[in-house]
Amino acid sequence: MKFTVADLLDQLSTEHPSEPDQLAKIFKLSNKTDKESLELAVSSLVKIGVIEQTSEGGLTRPQESDLIDARLRCSSKGFCFAIRDDGGEDIYIRDHQLNHAWNGDRVLVRVTREGGRRRSPEGGVQCILERATQSLLAQVEQQSEQLLAAPLDDRVLAGIELPEEDSKHLPSDEVSSVVEVRIDRYPLAQHAASGHVVRSLPLNGGPAADRDLLLTKAGLQDRPAATRSSGKNPAAKGRVDFTSQPSLLLKGWTQEDAPGMPAVHVEPIGGGCRLWVHVPSVGERIGLGNSLDACLRDRGEALCLGQVWQPLLTPALNKATSFSAGSVADAISVQLDISANGEVSNWEFMLSSVRPVADICAEQLIALAERKPKARSIPAALKPIKDQLGQLETLRFCCTLLLEQERISGVVQLNLCPPQLDALGDLRSADPSGLRHRWVDAFNPVDPNAFLQPLLRAADRAWTAQRLDLQLPGITIEADEPDGGMLTDVAKTAIALDLPLELDDEGCPSASELVQVFKDSSQCRVLEQQLSNALPPLSFVASKEATPAAAESDGEEAASTSPNTSLTPWTCATQHYVHLVNQQVIVALLTDAKDRPTVRHKTRLTLGLKGAGADLTWPLFTASKDEKLNGLVNERTVQRLNTLRRRVLELEKDLLSMIQARSAQPLIGQQVEGRISGVQSYGFFVEVGESRVEGLVHVSSLNDDWYEYRSRQNRLVGRKNRQTYQLGDAVQVRVINVDVLRNQIDLDIISQGSNGSSEIESSEPMPVALSER
Fold first, then answer.
1. Of 185-199, 473-487, 561-575, which range is least confident?
2. Are residues 241 and 353 in contact, defined by beta-carbon separation less than 8 angstroms?
3. Terminal alpha carbon distance of the chain
4. CA 194, 196, 198, 201 torsion-angle sign
5. Looking at residue 565, what is its pLDDT?
6. Per-residue pLDDT for 215 more than 90?
7. Number of Cβ atoms within 10 Å of the Cβ of 234
8. Angle between helix 623-632 and helix 577-591 axes, rounded to 10 deg
9. What sign results for the dihedral spanned by CA atoms 360, 366, 367, 369?
C-alpha cells in the first residue's frame, strides 16, 4: 500500500468526518487497485473499532478508546513488551498475542490483564499501525522444499520465504557474505512473510563494506536524495554586527564532510562571564513546509559513520551556512550572562553577522593543557592562536562554572568516552548536541566538542525559558526518572566493592550521588557503565503553546539546570532536524512576530530579551503563521524522529562494536589482561586491549568448580575452592574466537597453577551474543 494505518489515522479527527474520496486524493491514489486497498483498510479498521463511520460515510477517530498506541520491543527469547507512547507502564505481549507484529513495529494494544505489584499488565496487538522493517539482513537457507531467509536479527521471530531464483545466494561451506532481503509481503493469517534478495553484502570487504552492511542492518541504507537548493538568502536588515568580535570555532570533528558547528566568544565579567553563542543560520534559509524543509525532515539527522559522514544538509545549503575563519557569515546569536555560581542570569536572542578569527583543534588544546601556568614560551601548536590564549582560558573557566552548577543540580555526568581508535574517526569526539548518550559527558579539556557541550546546553536552556515565556511551540528533549530498582542494584554492587555507601529505609541514592561515590574508586569505569544502563533514554516530545500560568512556572524551571527539566534544542541545526525546527521558531520570532500592538505605538518590545513575555499583551503572529508554526511541531513528525534516533544510536553502537571486534581479530590465540565489566549467571564479560572490546568467559568453561551466581554482589563464587570472579577484577584471558557479524568474542580464563605456570581452564566455550547482557 502507498499508505500505512498510521498515515490514515493522522488524517482523521475526533470531531470532523473525512470522506474516503478526500483521503484517496491526499494519498494520491489514482488507480482502482489502490482505491480498493483503501476501502479494505477502512472496512477492517471500522470492524475492530479503530475508526468510526458516520451514517453519511464520513470517517472519524473515536472520542474514547481502550486501544493504546505503543512500540514493540521484542527479545530473542520470544517475549515482547509494548512500550507506550504516553509513558505508561510497559505491557507484556505473549507470542500468540503478537498477531504477526515484529520488533519495532508501531501497534495498537488492548490490555487483557491488569498488572500487579510485581507483574506487568498483559495485552494483545489489535492493529499494526506502521511496520519498522522494510528490509533486513539474512542468510539464505534451504528447509525441505522451501527457500528461506533467516534474519540475522534474532528479535525478528520469523523466516522469510524466497523465490527459487534466489537459491544462487545459498552459502557455501564458509560464510563470506550475507544478503539484504526486501519484504514483499508481511505475514498474514496462515501465510508466511515473503520477500526477495536485493543484493549480497561481503563480510570482509573492508571499512566501506562494513559501513554499508551496518547501514542496511539499521534500515538506513536508502538515504533520501538531496535537492540542489541552498534555500533563500537571509535578510541583511536588522542584524547585529559581530564581525569585529574575535569569536572562535571549536573543531573536534576532523572529517571534511562533518556538520558545521557554532562559533563562541567569552569575556570575564563580575566573577562570572558573558558568553556569545553564534549558530549557523540554517532556519532563515528554509521556508516553513517547503520542499527543502520536507527533504531535511525525511533525512532527520546527519549520520556519523566514523571516518565518513552522511550529512543532514544538502551540499549547497551546507556550503552557504558553514562558518570558516576570516569569512563573514549570517548567524543566530544569543548573549548569555553567567554568574559566578554558574547560573544563566540573563540572555538575549538576535540575528547577526559574524566573522570567526580562528579554528581551535584538539592538538592546540593538548598543547594548552600541557603548558605550565607561568611559562613564557609558547608551544609551536599555539603560536597561530597566541592572541586567543586568554579567551581560551576564560572559555575553560566558563565551562567549569556551567558543569559544576549542573552537577550540583543533580545532572548525571559520566566519564565513558569511547576508545581512541583511528578507525572510529569522528566518533572519538564528544557529540556537541548531547544526543548520543543518556547522560552528560564529563569534561575533557583536550576535546573541542567537550568545550562546546556545556555552552550549547546553556543556550538551549535559555531558549527553553524564552519559548515558554512567550508561549511558543517547540520540540523538546525529555527523559523519565531513572529506574529505582536498577539504581539500588548499582548501589549494592558499590557496597560489595567496599565503597563508602549505605542504603537506608528511604531508598537508593540518586544517580548523581552514586557518581560522586564512584569518582575516586579504581572501579569507577565499570560502575559508571552499570549505572548508565539504569538511565532512561532521551526522547523528543512535541510541545505546543502553553497556558500563561504554566508558561510562567515552567519558564522559571527551564532556566535552571535541574535534571528533570526538558530542553528545547536549537544550536545544532546542521546536525539534527529537531534543532532546525526550533531554530525556525526562533527565526519567526525575530523576523515575523509583532513587537508592538499596533503601528501607532512607538515603543517596541525586544522579543529576544529575557522576560519579554511579562509585557506582551497581543498576539505575536497572524493566525496563518501560527498554524504553520504549530504544523512544524506535530506528533507524527516527532514519532518518526524518535524512531530514526533509535536506529542511529543502534547504528553507532554496532559500528563501535564491529571496529572493536576487528581490532580483536589479531589477538586470537593470545593471552591478554582485562577487567571484568559485567557478571551474569551464564558467565562474565571482560574488557580487553586498548580497544576495550568486551568478550565473554562462559560459565561452562570454568571447569575447575561449580560456580554460583550471586546477583547482589555481582560475582560468581566457586562452591569448593571459593574462587570468585567479581565486577572490576583484573584477570588474564585468552582470545578464542571473534565473530564480527554477531559481535561475539569468546574468551577462556587463565589460572595460575601450583608451580606458577599459566594453565587454561579449557572446554568448548558457548557463544553468547553481547546483546543478551
1. 561-575
2. yes
3. 38
4. positive
5. 63
6. yes
7. 22
8. 160
9. positive
CA separation for the pair 380, 398 (Å, rounded): 26
Nearest to 612 by CA among 468, 474, 456, 458: 468
Mean pLDDT of the chain: 89
Question: What pLDDT, on the 0 to 100 scale, is given for residue 552?
Answer: 52
3-state secondary structure string across 192-250: CCEEEEEEEEECCCCHHHHHHHHHHHCCCCCCCCCCCCCCCCCCCCCCEEECCCCCEEE
Nearest of 379, 361, 360 to residue 370 by alpha carbon:
379
CA 225, 229, 234: angle at the middle one, nearest 5? Answer: 140
Task: List the one residue out of 468, 480, 493, 600 whose CA is nearest residue 544.
Answer: 468
Rounded to the nearest 10 degrees, what angle do helices 577-591 and 635-664 cross at?
A: 140
Q: What is the mean pLDDT of residues 428-456?
A: 93
| Backbone φ, ψ for residue 141 (5° rounding) | -130, 150
Q: Is the pTM of this model over 0.85?
A: yes
Give the H/E segment covering residue 73: strand 67-74
Average pLDDT over residues 590-601: 92
**Residue 44, SS3?**
helix
Give the HSE-up count for residue 646: Cα atoms under 13 Å, Cβ half-sphere.
Answer: 16
Mean of the pLDDT values across residues 362-375? 88
DSSP string, 126-181: EEEEE-S-SEEEEEEEEETTEEEEEESSTTS---EE--GGGGGG---SS--EEEEE
User: Average of pLDDT values for 74-82?
Assistant: 86
What is the pLDDT confidence band of residue 614, given thresholds at 50, 70 and 90?
very high
Which residues, at least 6 apart from 617, have a Cβ–Cβ distance to it below 8 Å?
Answer: 597
Q: In this predicted structure, what is the pLDDT of residue 767? A: 41
Least confident of 8-17, 51-60, 151-160, 548-557: 548-557
CB count, 10 Å around CB of 322?
A: 18
Neighbours of 691 (CB within 10 A): 21
- Percentage of the residues of the chain whose pLDDT score is greater than 90: 62
How far CA 279 is from CA of 261, 456, 515, in Å, comes to 7, 10, 33
Provide, for the chain, the percentages of residues in helix, strand and coil under a 3-state DSSP scheme, each rounded to the nearest 5.
30, 25, 40
Alpha-carbon span 663 to 424, nearest angstrom: 11
- Report which of 608, 624, 756, 746 is spatially closest to residue 682, judged by C-alpha positions: 746
CB atoms within 10 A of CB 309: 19
Q: If pLDDT is split at 50, 70 and 90, which confidence band does 494 have?
A: confident
